[in-house]
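Quick one, probably user error.
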């Protein structure tokens, strides 16, 4: 019998953590809880069993959530991360996405929304890892939908697999990185404002310093540019935002 998914909860507010652990268990998940950032990072880098998803508070004693997320991605750990952020600090959302989080939820949050977000991350992971369906007659593996593939400059973005394939390197994308790349490629050659990205891709509608996404764009340039310091595909439109040029 396949064990139920294991959710790692990294949260130092004891009353909140206990409530979440109770409700996650009621939904059929197994759980592991850490309240200290240093202990959490050590556990997540070498877990005794596979973790299905991580619910990660951004503010922790010891190592903070942003550093934990970044360390996991640097270690090639792509377990989905749902980051919990402070409602009064929308810039935390952008910092979390930049660090490698796949989704975010501002505090205080509705429990049902958190459970739906977790299910969404697990469902996407299942889609990515599912082998091709087998039949009694051997068949060719199903080809990805054309909408799930975008090719430019000897690079291929596989939105279905969260991968960007470039010469000599394949980069694993977070959900948010893939969502932003899809948003930009769907609007190739168009100017896209920072405000549009915040509202349409990241659902941030609070009064946020939109320049905070510049560092996120810098990371994407490392994936899509031959010379990230002199971008030709993901260009800045001064005072407005960005433009993706597949054929500059």
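Nope, works fine. Designed sequence:
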């Amino acid at each position: 019998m396949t064990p139920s998914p294991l959710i790692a909860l990294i949260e130092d507010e004891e009353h909140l953590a206990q409530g979440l652990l109770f409700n996650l268990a009621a939904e059929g998940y197994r759980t592991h809880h850490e309240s200290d950032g240093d202990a959490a990072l050590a556990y997540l880098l070498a877990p005794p069993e596979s973790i299905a998803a991580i619910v990660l508070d951004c503010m922790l004693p010891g190592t903070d959530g942003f550093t934990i997320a970044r360390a996991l991605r640097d270690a090639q750990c792509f377990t989905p991360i749902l980051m919990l952020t402070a409602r009064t600090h929308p810039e935390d959302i952008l910092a979390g996405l930049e660090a490698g989080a796949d989704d975010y939820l501002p505090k205080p949050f509705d429990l049902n929304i958190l459970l739906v977000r977790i299910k969404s991350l697990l469902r996407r992971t299942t889609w990515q890892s599912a082998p091709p369906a087998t039949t009694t007659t051997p068949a060719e593996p199903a080809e990805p939908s054309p909408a799930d593939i975008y090719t430019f400059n000897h690079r291929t973005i596989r939105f279905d697999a969260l991968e960007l394939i470039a010469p000599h390197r394949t980069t694993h994308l977070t959900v948010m990185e893939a969502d932003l790349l899809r948003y930009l490629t769907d609007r190739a050659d168009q100017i896209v404002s920072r405000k549009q990205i915040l509202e349409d891709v990241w659902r941030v509608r609070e009064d946020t310093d939109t320049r905070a996404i510049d560092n996120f764009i810098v990371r994407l340039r490392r994936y899509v540019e031959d010379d990230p310091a002199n971008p030709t595909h993901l260009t800045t439109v001064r005072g407005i935002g960005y433009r993706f040029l597949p054929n500059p």
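DSSP finds eight helices and twelve strands in the chain.
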